[in-house]
Design brief:
The protein has two domains: 3-42 and 268-355, Aspartate Aminotransferase, domain 1; 45-266, 3-Layer(aba) Sandwich (Aspartate Aminotransferase, domain 2), CATH 3.40.640.10. Helices cover 42% and strands 13% of the residues. The chain contains 14 helices and twelve strands. It has helices at 17-24, 45-53, 67-77, 90-101, 114-122, 137-147, 167-176, 190-196, 204-207, 237-244, 254-263, 267-291, 310-319, 342-355; strands at 32-33, 84-87, 105-108, 126-129, 151-155, 182-186, 213-218, 231-235, 302-305, 322-323, 325-326, 335-338. Strand 11 and strand 12 (335-338) form a beta hairpin. Helix 2 (45-53) packs antiparallel against helix 11 (254-263). The radius of gyration is 20 Å and the shape is globular. The relative contact order is 0.17. Bound molecules: pyridoxal-5'-phosphate (PLP). Pyridoxal-5'-phosphate binds at residues 37, 89-91, 113, 155, 159, 186, 188, 218, 220-221, 226, 231.
Length: 356
């Protein structure tokens, strides 16, 4: 019955706090969760206030046109409302894109966001990966020429590694790909990348020039709304109107809409988080250098540090209530650590100095 799903693994989300509470008996308040690239500062206090004020509306179905949210997003991105689709996380937009096309072949980087593969396998597609773990657009092009995949995923910057290809290289690459292949640019960490280095900034408006390109963005990372599940896709009207055929009605909640909409009003809060992110990331870089550990230069809110026996280290951290992502399942010893609040990072680094 489930022949198509035979080779499919269930997505392994970062360990939830509750699990560590149960398994190790650590108090929830003492747990440091740096495994899912969430915003450690949470959403803007204005967002919390607004959601509280509107909690009484939860018996109502949300506005299925997403009028206010789309209006604000359109303004920020310099596009029209017709160029936007809202998803329950950008994950859902990725799902719409894959299911709409039902590709035979998709092409991704060697190591990248797991959901591309999962959604693709759901429709029985073959997954082609570049030999390099990080994005190498030359390798993408070589495989594209030979295999003609129907979807190419570019994660800019890339999760779980943190590297980021230049925006110019992305657009040069798009020019070389014919219109039969959809290129999905996943910009989940674009706010971080473009803050650190302007040459990484994908101008979403420029996406609209192409028949076959879609950009996805999310409120889960820089905006601190992971638990509210709001993301979006930006593309030409033709692509967006087709993806809408797959969208279930009311796919995000009324409070999620209100939260996302309000989050766009407080750019200062978002900027504060991003600024602190890179300031705090430096502590991890200093640690790695001092220890002689290699790390991947990151354009995101996490950093990958190569640490010998990473599984052992990750487990030791877990027993102390610190949740990070072990990269051993990708075939190399490293930890992916989401950058937390200053006091969290200090504690993680203190522990790491002791055990690594
Ligand atoms: C977090 C993340 C997403 C989407 O997250 P949602 O919460 O579904 O919006 C998409 N792509 C990458 C690479 C991510 O890291």
């Amino acid at each position: 019955m489930f022949e198509k799903l035979k080779n499919l693994k269930t997505y392994e989300a970062g360990k939830p706090i509750e699990l560590v509470v149960r398994e190790y008996g650590i108090k929830p308040g003492e747990i440091i969760k740096l495994a899912s690239n969430e915003n450690p500062y949470g959403p803007s206090p204005k967002v919390i206030e607004k959601v509280k004020k509107n909690a009484h509306l939860m018996h109502r179905y949300p506005d299925d046109s997403f009028y206010e949210l789309k209006e604000k997003l359109a303004k920020i991105h310099g596009v029209d409302k017709k160029n936007i689709i809202i998803g329950a996380g950008s994950d859902q937009v990725i799902e719409f894109a894959v299911h709409a096309i039902s590709p035979k072949k998709v092409l991704t980087a060697g190591i990248t966001f797991a959901m591309y593969e999962i959604y693709s396998k759901q429709v029985g597609a073959e997954i082609l990966k570049t030999p390099s773990a990080k994005h190498s657009l030359n390798e993408f092009y070589e495989i594209y020429k030979k295999e003609k995949p129907e979807i190419i995923f570019l994660c800019v910057p890339n999760n779980p590694l943190g590297e980021c290809i230049d925006a110019k290289d992305v657009f040069d690459f798009i020019e070389k790909i014919d219109e039969e292949t959809l290129i999905l640019i996943d910009g989940a960490y674009q706010e971080f990348a473009s803050y650190k280095d302007k040459s990484k900034e994908i101008k979403t408006k420029d996406i609209l020039k192409y028949k076959n390109v879609i950009y996805t963005g999310t409120f889960s990372k820089a905006y601190g709304l992971g638990g509210m599940r709001v993301g979006y896709g930006i593309s030409n009207e033709y692509i967006i109107s087709n993806l809408h055929k797959l969208r279930p009605p009311f796919n995000i909640t009324i409070l999620s809409q209100i939260a996302a909409s309000e989050a766009l009003e407080d750019s200062e809060w978002v900027d504060m988080g991003i600024e602190n992110n890179f300031k705090e990331m430096q502590k991890y870089i200093d640690f790695a250098k001092k220890k002689g550990f290699e790390y991947i230069e990151s354009y995101t809110n996490f950093i990958v540090i190569y640490i010998p026996e990473s599984t052992k280290i990750a487990n030791k951290l877990l027993k102390k209530g610190i949740i990070v992502r072990d990269m051993a399942s990708y075939g190399f010893d490293a930890l992916r650590i989401t950058i937390g609040k200053p006091e969290e990072n200090d504690k993680v680094l203190k522990t790491l100095r002791e055990i690594s």
